[in-house]
Protein backbone atom coordinates (compact mmCIF):
# COMPACT_ATOMS: atom_id res chain seq x y z
CA UNK A 1 0.00 0.00 0.00
CA UNK A 2 2.89 2.35 0.84
CA UNK A 3 4.34 1.57 -2.58
CA UNK A 4 1.20 2.83 -4.34
CA UNK A 5 1.12 5.93 -2.16
CA UNK A 6 4.71 6.71 -3.11
CA UNK A 7 3.95 6.13 -6.81
CA UNK A 8 0.90 8.37 -6.60
CA UNK A 9 3.03 11.09 -5.01
CA UNK A 10 5.69 10.76 -7.74
CA UNK A 11 2.98 10.83 -10.41
CA UNK A 12 1.40 13.93 -8.85
CA UNK A 13 4.75 15.74 -8.71
CA UNK A 14 5.47 14.76 -12.34
CA UNK A 15 2.10 16.10 -13.48
CA UNK A 16 2.77 19.32 -11.56
CA UNK A 17 6.14 19.74 -13.31
CA UNK A 18 4.58 19.13 -16.71
CA UNK A 19 1.81 21.64 -15.97
CA UNK A 20 4.29 24.29 -14.81
CA UNK A 21 6.49 23.60 -17.84
CA UNK A 22 3.54 24.04 -20.21
CA UNK A 23 2.62 27.33 -18.53
CA UNK A 24 6.18 28.60 -18.90
CA UNK A 25 6.36 27.59 -22.57
CA UNK A 26 2.90 29.07 -23.16
CA UNK A 27 3.89 32.34 -21.52
CA UNK A 28 7.04 32.52 -23.63
CA UNK A 29 5.17 31.97 -26.89
CA UNK A 30 2.52 34.67 -26.26
CA UNK A 31 3.49 37.94 -27.90
CA UNK A 32 2.83 41.03 -25.84
CA UNK A 33 0.06 43.04 -27.46
CA UNK A 34 -0.09 46.81 -27.54
CA UNK A 35 -3.32 48.63 -28.29
CA UNK A 36 -3.89 52.22 -29.29
CA UNK A 37 -6.76 54.64 -29.66
CA UNK A 38 -7.37 57.58 -31.96
CA UNK A 39 -8.35 60.23 -29.39
CA UNK A 40 -9.66 62.67 -32.02
CA UNK A 41 -12.01 60.04 -33.43
CA UNK A 42 -13.00 58.95 -29.94
CA UNK A 43 -13.84 62.51 -28.84
CA UNK A 44 -15.74 63.27 -32.06
CA UNK A 45 -17.89 60.23 -31.38
CA UNK A 46 -18.40 60.91 -27.68
CA UNK A 47 -21.61 62.95 -27.55
CA UNK A 48 -21.23 64.41 -24.01
CA UNK A 49 -17.89 65.89 -25.05
CA UNK A 50 -19.18 67.21 -28.36
CA UNK A 51 -22.17 68.84 -26.64
CA UNK A 52 -19.96 70.63 -24.11
CA UNK A 53 -17.31 71.53 -26.69
CA UNK A 54 -19.80 72.85 -29.26
CA UNK A 55 -21.50 74.98 -26.60
CA UNK A 56 -18.14 76.43 -25.57
CA UNK A 57 -17.22 77.12 -29.22
CA UNK A 58 -20.57 78.79 -29.86
CA UNK A 59 -20.22 81.05 -26.80
CA UNK A 60 -16.60 81.84 -27.69
CA UNK A 61 -17.53 82.77 -31.27
CA UNK A 62 -20.42 84.97 -30.05
CA UNK A 63 -18.00 86.92 -27.87
CA UNK A 64 -15.46 87.24 -30.66
CA UNK A 65 -18.20 88.70 -32.84
CA UNK A 66 -19.14 91.18 -30.11
CA UNK A 67 -15.53 92.30 -29.79
CA UNK A 68 -15.32 92.74 -33.57
CA UNK A 69 -18.51 94.82 -33.47
CA UNK A 70 -17.05 96.94 -30.64
CA UNK A 71 -13.90 97.53 -32.69
CA UNK A 72 -15.97 98.54 -35.72
CA UNK A 73 -18.00 100.89 -33.54
CA UNK A 74 -14.75 102.65 -32.62
CA UNK A 75 -14.52 101.60 -28.97
CA UNK A 76 -11.21 102.43 -27.28
CA UNK A 77 -8.57 99.81 -26.54
CA UNK A 78 -9.40 100.06 -22.82
CA UNK A 79 -13.08 99.37 -23.52
CA UNK A 80 -12.15 96.45 -25.78
CA UNK A 81 -9.82 95.09 -23.07
CA UNK A 82 -12.62 95.34 -20.46
CA UNK A 83 -15.01 93.50 -22.79
CA UNK A 84 -12.40 90.83 -23.45
CA UNK A 85 -11.78 90.34 -19.71
CA UNK A 86 -15.52 90.17 -19.07
CA UNK A 87 -15.99 87.62 -21.83
CA UNK A 88 -13.11 85.53 -20.53
CA UNK A 89 -14.87 85.32 -17.16
CA UNK A 90 -18.17 84.51 -18.83
CA UNK A 91 -16.55 81.68 -20.81
CA UNK A 92 -15.00 80.07 -17.75
CA UNK A 93 -18.06 77.91 -16.88
CA UNK A 94 -18.11 76.57 -20.44
CA UNK A 95 -14.41 75.72 -20.25
CA UNK A 96 -14.96 74.00 -16.92
CA UNK A 97 -17.86 72.01 -18.38
CA UNK A 98 -15.57 70.70 -21.13
CA UNK A 99 -12.86 69.86 -18.56
CA UNK A 100 -15.34 68.03 -16.36
CA UNK A 101 -16.53 65.90 -19.29
CA UNK A 102 -12.90 65.08 -20.13
CA UNK A 103 -12.10 64.14 -16.52
CA UNK A 104 -15.11 61.84 -16.33
CA UNK A 105 -14.22 60.34 -19.68
CA UNK A 106 -10.63 59.68 -18.52
CA UNK A 107 -11.91 57.78 -15.48
CA UNK A 108 -14.31 55.78 -17.63
CA UNK A 109 -11.55 55.01 -20.15
CA UNK A 110 -9.24 53.79 -17.39
CA UNK A 111 -11.82 51.14 -16.50
CA UNK A 112 -12.46 50.22 -20.13
CA UNK A 113 -8.73 49.88 -20.86
CA UNK A 114 -8.22 47.75 -17.75
CA UNK A 115 -11.07 45.44 -18.78
CA UNK A 116 -9.93 45.15 -22.39
CA UNK A 117 -6.31 44.57 -21.33
CA UNK A 118 -7.38 41.80 -19.00
CA UNK A 119 -9.68 40.15 -21.56
CA UNK A 120 -7.55 40.59 -24.67
CA UNK A 121 -4.02 40.57 -23.23
CA UNK A 122 -2.82 44.10 -23.94
CA UNK A 123 0.20 45.20 -21.96
CA UNK A 124 -0.30 48.87 -22.85
CA UNK A 125 -2.79 51.21 -24.48
CA UNK A 126 -1.30 54.19 -26.29
CA UNK A 127 -2.76 57.19 -27.99
CA UNK A 128 -2.31 57.25 -31.76
CA UNK A 129 -1.03 60.81 -31.80
CA UNK A 130 -0.29 63.70 -29.49
CA UNK A 131 -0.90 67.23 -30.77
CA UNK A 132 -0.80 66.07 -34.36
CA UNK A 133 2.40 64.06 -33.97
CA UNK A 134 2.13 60.31 -34.49
CA UNK A 135 3.00 58.19 -31.47
CA UNK A 136 2.07 54.91 -33.12
CA UNK A 137 3.67 54.70 -36.53
CA UNK A 138 3.32 51.01 -37.19
CA UNK A 139 1.76 47.99 -35.54
CA UNK A 140 -0.44 47.70 -32.51
CA UNK A 141 -4.13 47.01 -32.38
CA UNK A 142 -6.52 49.89 -33.01
CA UNK A 143 -9.24 49.56 -30.37
CA UNK A 144 -10.86 52.97 -31.03
CA UNK A 145 -14.08 51.60 -32.54
CA UNK A 146 -14.37 49.01 -29.80
CA UNK A 147 -13.99 51.69 -27.12
CA UNK A 148 -16.50 53.98 -28.88
CA UNK A 149 -18.97 51.12 -28.97
CA UNK A 150 -18.44 50.43 -25.26
CA UNK A 151 -18.81 54.13 -24.42
CA UNK A 152 -22.01 54.47 -26.42
CA UNK A 153 -23.43 51.48 -24.59
CA UNK A 154 -22.41 52.74 -21.17
CA UNK A 155 -24.24 56.08 -21.27
UniProtKB/TrEMBL annotation:
Could you read off the lineage of the organism from its UniProt record? Bacteria, Pseudomonadati, Dictyoglomota, Dictyoglomia, Dictyoglomales
Q: Output the Gene Ontology terms for molecular function.
A: unfolded protein binding
Q: Does the keyword Signal apply?
A: yes
Protein keywords: Signal
Q: Which organism is it from?
A: Dictyoglomus thermophilum (strain ATCC 35947 / DSM 3960 / H-6-12)
Which is a Gene Ontology cellular component entry for this protein? cytosol
User: Which protein family is it in?
Assistant: Belongs to the Skp family.
Designated name of the protein:
Cationic outer membrane protein, putative
Q: Please name the GO terms of the biological process aspect recorded for this protein, alphabetically.
A: protein stabilization
